[in-house]
Design brief:
The complex is a heterodimer. By secondary structure, chain A is mostly beta strands. Chain A has four helices and 21 strands. Chain B has two domains: about 110 residues, Immunoglobulin-like (Sandwich); about 280 residues, no CATH class. By secondary structure, chain B is mostly beta strands. Classes of the chains: A mainly beta, B mainly beta.
Chain lengths: ~550, ~425
C-alpha cells in the first residue's frame, strides 16, 4: 500500500511540476486582450521575490478566490519559481501538541501562465514537499496534525519526536472566455503525508486528501462579473499506535474532548490504539467582482460542511466519534490603483467555524450472523467554534518596473474561541486581538542585483478567557498538563518582532531567470502565563530560482 | 468506442455512488441532536431467597435499603454519577444516555451481625427518563442485592500479572484475617471463577439457576485440616503461591530478573508437575477442575481472573462423583458440556474480580454481591500487584484493611507486590517458622 501511495505521489508530482514548466514555454505570450498595464498587468520582465509578491497582492482572484475560473479576470502574467527551504522554530510559547524544537526542510515549485496554444487558457500549479522533524510534542499518538480540529484521537503524555512528511500539489485551470461571457475553471488539490512518532506508543500515520473545486464565472459587461464554485473533498487518515519495546505498557488517553477522556494503556496485550478517519466535505461559494482601471473589488462568500467518521478497527469497527465541521466566510478584497506609482490594498474578512462532536452508545452483538457493534443512539456531546475578523491595509509604491520600491501595511485580527462539552456542562472561552505592522524596502543595486529588506512588529492581547470545567478529571495529569496548559496557551498574549532579507540576482539562464537567497526571523515573547510560556523563535532560510 | 462509453458510464456510476454515500454519511450525522441529560431512577431490592433468571426474587422486608450508595458508571466515557437510596430504596441520578454499570454498596446491622448490602447490574442501557414510580413498578429498573455477612477473611494482596519477559510463575495470593476472631481455615475453598478472563459476552447459565444465586468455579483448591488444625488469628495472613520458589533468581524473556521470593509461603497450589514442586512447602489440594486437570501448572490469567473464598463446611475430593453432580454441585453453561463448580452465594466469604484494564470495567463477569466492582493492574507482566487499602491498625500493629466488597475502591496497585505488607503476621503453624 505504501509503495502504491508513492507511485500515486510520483505521478501527481510530475503533473503538478510540469504545470509551471509548461507555462514557462508560453512566456512570450502577449498579454490577454483584457489586460491593461494601468490596471496592474505586469508584463514579462525580470522575476524577483518582490515581483512575485506584487503579482500575488495585486491579483485578487488569484490570491483570495476559491473559484479557479475567476483567475481569468486577473490581469496576471507568467511567473514561475522553485525553491529549497529550511525552517526552524524553537521555544515554549506554543500549543502543547506542537513540537518545542522543530526543523522543516522543503522543496516547492509554484507557477503559472496563459497557454497561447489553448486560446489563453490559464493554468497554474504548485507542488511542495515538506519534511518536518518535531521534538518534544505531547498528547498526540494518532494524528498527522493534532490541531486540525477533531476531538477524537489517542493521546499520550510522552515528549516525543515526530517525523512528518507531506506532499502537497495543486492545479488550477481556467478556460478562455467562452461566448464572450463565460469562463469555466477547476481547482484540484491532492495531499499525501506520513507522520511517524519516534517514541512509544508510536503510530505510523498516513493521510491523504483529494479536493476538487469546479467553478464558473459569468462576465456581465466590462466591469462586473459573477462567479460560483462547488467543492468536494475526501480525506482519509489512519494512525495505529503500537510499541516498539513490546513488553512495556505506555500510558495513553482516549480523547473525546479536552478534559473528557478515558485513561488507557497501550501494550502488547491490550490497548484501544487505532483510529481511522474518513471525511467527506461538500461546499461552495459565490463571488461578485467589480473591475475598473483604478479599482478592483472582490466580494466573496464560502460555505463548506465536512463530516468525519472515526472508527477504531478495520475488522470490527466501533464508532469512536463523528464530527460535523461547518465553515463559512465572507470577504471583501479591494485594490486601488491610486496612480501608476501608488497602490493600496484593503482586505476584510469574517471566518466562522463550528465543530460538533458526536458520540455514540453502542452494543456489541456477538451473534454469529451479526458479530459487530450496533449503534443504539448518538448525540452531539461537544462543540468547538471559532470566529475571526480580519482586516489588512497595505500600501505599495510600485516604481520598480514589475516589482515595487517599498511597501508598508498593517494586519488586524480579532479571534473568538468557544468550546463546550454539554454534559457535564463545561465551557472554555478565549478572546484575543492581534495586530501586526510591516514594511519592506526593495533596494536595486546595479542592473542585476536587488536586496529586499523587511521589518515587522506584532502584538497579541487577550481580552477575555474563562474556563469552567465540571468533569471528573480535574486532578489528572492529562487535564492539568494538557487541557489546562493548552487553554492558557490560547489566551497568552505576546509581543513579536521580525526581520527579513532577500538577495536576488537577475538575468541568469536568460533574461527572466533569477536566483534568490532569503532569510527571515521572528521572535515572540510571552506577556502572560510566564511560568508556563517564555518565547518562540522562528527562522527560515530559502534559496531558489525564478524563471 | 463502445468500451469508452462503458467506461464513462462506469465512471459516472462510481461517482454517483460515492456522492450518494457521502450524502448518506452527512444525513446520518445530522440525525444527532444535542445531548439532553436524563433522570433515571432504579429501585434497590434486597433478596435473601432465590432469584429467578428474570431477576424476580422476593424482597426481604426486614432488610433496610435506604441510605445505600449507588454508583452509575458509564465506562465508555469514564463518567460516574453517585447518589444514595431514599427510604423506599430508590436512587435517582442525572446521566447522559448510555450503557451503565449500576453498583450498590452499603451495610446494615442485624442482631449484632454486619451484613454487606452489595449488588450490581452491568451494561444496563439507560436511554430515557425513568421516574421513581416507573422504577418501582418495573423489574427492568431494579437492582437486586443480596445481603452477605461481613466475614473476617479477605484477600489482602494478589499478584497475578507476572514479570517482564512473560514470566508468570511468581503469582501469589494472600488471605488475611481482618476480623477480631480466630478463623479456622480447615475446609476453606479458594476458587478461580469462570470465565477466566473478563468478557463482554459472559456465559449463559440454565434458566433454573436463576440470577445471582451462584458463582461458578473453574478450579477449586481446599485447605487441609479436619476442623481446627489451621487457625488464622486476627492480623495473620496465609499465602498461596503458584510455584513456591525464589523467583528473584530467575530471568524473564527480557533478561530481567523476576520479582518475589515465594519459597517460604504457607502453601503451594501445585497441580502435579514434578519439576515444579517444592517438597518443603505443603501443597494445597485441588478438589475441582473444570475439564481436565492442567498438570503443568495452575496459571491464572495474567490479564486478571476472578476469585472467591467459600466455606462448604466439609472435606471435598476431586472426582468424587457422589458429591460433584451436574445440576446440584456443578453446572454447565448453555451450549457447553464443560461443568463448573456451583458455589452457592451463602457460602461465599470474600471475592475479587480482575479485569484487563480500566476500559474493561464494564466486562464484569461475577455478581455484584461477590464484588461490586473490579480491580486491575492495567497491564500484564508489569511487576504490579494489588493490595487492600489500610484504614487502621490494631494494638499489636497489624493492619485493618478497607473491605466494602467493592474492589474498585478497596484496592490499590502496588509495584512491587510484597508479602505481609503493613506488618501482617504469619500463623504459628506455618512450616517455615518450624523448620
Amino acid at each position: 500500500m505504501t509503495t502504491y501511495n508513492y507511485l500515486k505521489l510520483t505521478g501527481c508530482l510530475l503533473i503538478a511540476s510540469c504545470v509551471s514548466f509548461g507555462a514557462a514555454a508560453q512566456q512570450a505570450n502577449p498579454a490577454p486582450e483584457n489586460a491593461d498595464a494601468t490596471a496592474g498587468y505586469v508584463v514579462s520582465q525580470n522575476n524577483s521575490p518582490a515581483s512575485i509578491e506584487r503579482i500575488k497582492v495585486e491579483n485578487l482572484h488569484f490570491s483570495h478566490s476559491e473559484n479557479a475560473s475567476s483567475i481569468q479576470l486577473d490581469p496576471i502574467g507568467y511567473y514561475s519559481e522553485a525553491s529549497l527551504g529550511l525552517d526552524r522554530e524553537k521555544g515554549s510559547l506554543k500549543r502543547v501538541q506542537e513540537g518545542a524544537d522543530n526543523t522543516a526542510y522543503s522543496f516547492s515549485t509554484d507557477g503559472g501562465g496563459r497557454l497561447a496554444g489553448l486560446r489563453d487558457m490559464y493554468v497554474w500549479g504548485r507542488f511542495s514537499y515538506t519534511r518536518k522533524n518535531l521534538k518534544d510534542a505531547q498528547y498526540n499518538a494518532t494524528l498527522f496534525d493534532p490541531l486540525r480540529g477533531t476531538p477524537f484521537y489517542v493521546a499520550d503524555p510522552s515528549k516525543s519526536k515526530w517525523i512528518n512528511q507531506l506532499f502537497d500539489m495543486e492545479v488550477k485551470a481556467a478556460s478562455p472566455v467562452l461566448w464572450k461571457h463565460v469562463v469555466f475553471g477547476v481547482g484540484l488539490n491532492y495531499q499525501n503525508g506520513q507522520a511517524a512518532k519516534q517514541l512509544d506508543p508510536r503510530p505510523l500515520t498516513t493521510v491523504s486528501k483529494f479536493d476538487i473545486k469546479p467553478g464558473i464565472t459569468v462576465l456581465l459587461g466590462e466591469k462586473h462579473a459573477l462567479g460560483g464554485y462547488y467543492r468536494y473533498y475526501s480525506r482519509r487518515e489512519d494512525g495505529n499506535a503500537s510499541n516498539s519495546v513490546s513488553l512495556v505498557y505506555q500510558t495513553a488517553y482516549i480523547m473525546n474532548f479536552p478534559g473528557f477522556f478515558i485513561a488507557n494503556e497501550i501494550g502488547p496485550l491490550s490497548g484501544d490504539s487505532q483510529r481511522i478517519y474518513n471525511a467527506n466535505c461538500m461546499g461552495g461559494g459565490g463571488e461578485y467582482t467589480f473591475r475598473s482601471d483604478a479599482v478592483q473589488i472582490l466580494l466573496s462568500g464560502n460555505y463548506s460542511q465536512e463530516v468525519e467518521d472515526v472508527t477504531n478497527s478495520y475488522t470490527t469497527p466501533k464508532m469512536t466519534g463523528t464530527t460535523i465541521d461547518e465553515r463559512y466566510s465572507i470577504a471583501l478584497n479591494t485594490s486601488f490603483k491610486l496612480s501608476p506609482a501608488n497602490a493600496l490594498f484593503v482586505n476584510l474578512s469574517y471566518d466562522n467555524r463550528s465543530i460538533d462532536g458526536i458520540q455514540y452508545v453502542q452494543e456489541y452483538d456477538n451473534s454469529f450472523e451479526v458479530a459487530k457493534w450496533i449503534i443504539k443512539s448518538k448525540s452531539i456531546r461537544s462543540n468547538s467554534s471559532s470566529a475571526y475578523v480580519r482586516g489588512s491595509l497595505q500600501y505599495m509604491r510600485t516604481t520598480r518596473q514589475n516589482a515595487y520600491d517599498w511597501t508598508v501595511g498593517v494586519d488586524l485580527v480579532s479571534e473568538k474561541l468557544d468550546d463546550i462539552y454539554y454534559f457535564p456542562r463545561s465551557t472554555q472561552n478565549v478572546k484575543n486581538f492581534s495586530a501586526k505592522i510591516f514594511g519592506r524596502k526593495n533596494f536595486i543595486i546595479g542592473s542585476r542585483h536587488s536586496l529586499l529588506v523587511g521589518l515587522n512588529a506584532a502584538m497579541k492581547s487577550n481580552s477575555d478567557s474563562a474556563i469552567d470545567y465540571n468533569g471528573g478529571k480535574a486532578d489528572t495529569e492529562c487535564y492539568q498538563d494538557f487541557t489546562l496548559r493548552d487553554f492558557y496557551s490560547l489566551g497568552t498574549g505576546y509581543t513579536a518582532f521580525g526581520a527579513e532579507i532577500t538577495y536576488a540576482l537577475s538575468e541568469i539562464f536568460g533574461p527572466r531567470g533569477s536566483l534568490f537567497v532569503a532569510a527571515a526571523t521572528d521572535y515572540f515573547k510571552a506577556k502572560d502565563h510566564k511560568d508556563l510560556f517564555n518565547d518562540r523563535l522562528l527562522a527560515s532560510f530559502k534559496v531558489g530560482f525564478m524563471f | 468506442m463502445k468500451n469508452r462509453y462503458l467506461f464513462n458510464l462506469a465512471a459516472l456510476a462510481c461517482s454517483a455512488a460515492a456522492l450518494g454515500s457521502c450524502v448518506d454519511m452527512m444525513q446520518e450525522a445530522h440525525d444527532a441532536k444535542i445531548v439532553e441529560p436524563i433522570s433515571v431512577a432504579v429501585q434497590i431490592k434486597a433478596v435473601t431467597g432465590f432469584v429467578d433468571s428474570e431477576g424476580n426474587g422476593e424482597p426481604d422486608p426486614t432488610i433496610n435499603t435506604s441510605g445505600l450508595n449507588v454508583r452509575f458508571v458509564n465506562y465508555d466515557e469514564d463518567f460516574v454519577a453517585e447518589t444514595t437510596t431514599d427510604e423506599d430504596g430508590i436512587a435517582v441520578a442525572e446521566v447522559t444516555p448510555g450503557n451503565y454499570t449500576i453498583s450498590v454498596t452499603g451495610s446494615t446491622e442485624t442482631e449484632g451481625t454486619t451484613y454487606y448490602l452489595n449488588g450490581s447490574v452491568q451494561n444496563k442501557a439507560l436511554m430515557t427518563d425513568v421516574t421513581p414510580e416507573e422504577a418501582a413498578a418495573s423489574k427492568d429498573y431494579a437492582v437486586t442485592i443480596r445481603p452477605s455477612r461481613v466475614g473476617p477473611l479477605c484477600f489482602s494482596e494478589i499478584f497475578y500479572a507476572g514479570s517482564p519477559g512473560y514470566y508468570f510463575r511468581n503469582q501469589f495470593y494472600e488471605i488475611y484475617n481482618n476480623g477480631d476472631e480466630v478463623y479456622y481455615l480447615d475446609f476453606l475453598c479458594f476458587a478461580q471463577l469462570h470465565p477466566e478472563r473478563a468478557t463482554l459476552t459472559p456465559p449463559e447459565w440454565p434458566a433454573e439457576e436463576g440470577s445471582n444465586n451462584y458463582v461458578y468455579g473453574k478450579v477449586v483448591w481446599q485447605f487441609p485440616g479436619t476442623g481446627t488444625d489451621y487457625p488464622l488469628y486476627p492480623g495473620e495472613s496465609v499465602i498461596l503461591a503458584q510455584e513456591a520458589a525464589d523467583h528473584t533468581k530467575n530471568q524473564g524473556g527480557t533478561g530481567e530478573y523476576a520479582l518475589m521470593d515465594n519459597s517460604k509461603v504457607e502453601f503451594e497450589v501445585w497441580s502435579g508437575n514434578a519439576q515444579r514442586d517444592n517438597p518443603d512447602v505443603p501443597n494445597m489440594e485441588y478438589v475441582f477442575w473444570a475439564g481436565s486437570v492442567n498438570k503443568v501448572q495452575w496459571l491464572t490469567s495474567v490479564f486478571g481472573s476472578a476469585f472467591c473464598l467459600y466455606q462448604p463446611g466439609m472435606k471435598l475430593t476431586y472426582d468424587d462423583t457422589s458429591y460433584w453432580k451436574l445440576g446440584e454441585t456443578t453446572q454447565s453453561p448453555v451450549g457447553s458440556s464443560t461443568q463448573y463448580a456451583k458455589i452457592p452465594a451463602g457460602q461465599i466469604i470474600d471475592g475479587i474480580e480482575f479485569v484487563d484494564n480500566s476500559t474493561m470495567l464494564n466486562a464484569k463477569r461475577i455478581p455484584g454481591f461477590v464484588d461490586a466492582g473490579a480491580a486491575s493492574v492495567n497491564a500484564s507482566y508489569n511487576n504490579t500487584g494489588v493490595t487492600r487499602k489500610k484504614i487502621g491498625e490494631r494494638e499489636d500493629g497489624t493492619p485493618i484493611y478497607q473491605d466494602t466488597n467493592d474492589s474498585t475502591v478497596d484496592f490499590e496497585n502496588v509495584t512491587p507486590p510484597v508479602h505481609r505488607r503493613n506488618g501482617a503476621k504469619q500463623p504459628a503453624w506455618s512450616w517455615s517458622l518450624n523448620e
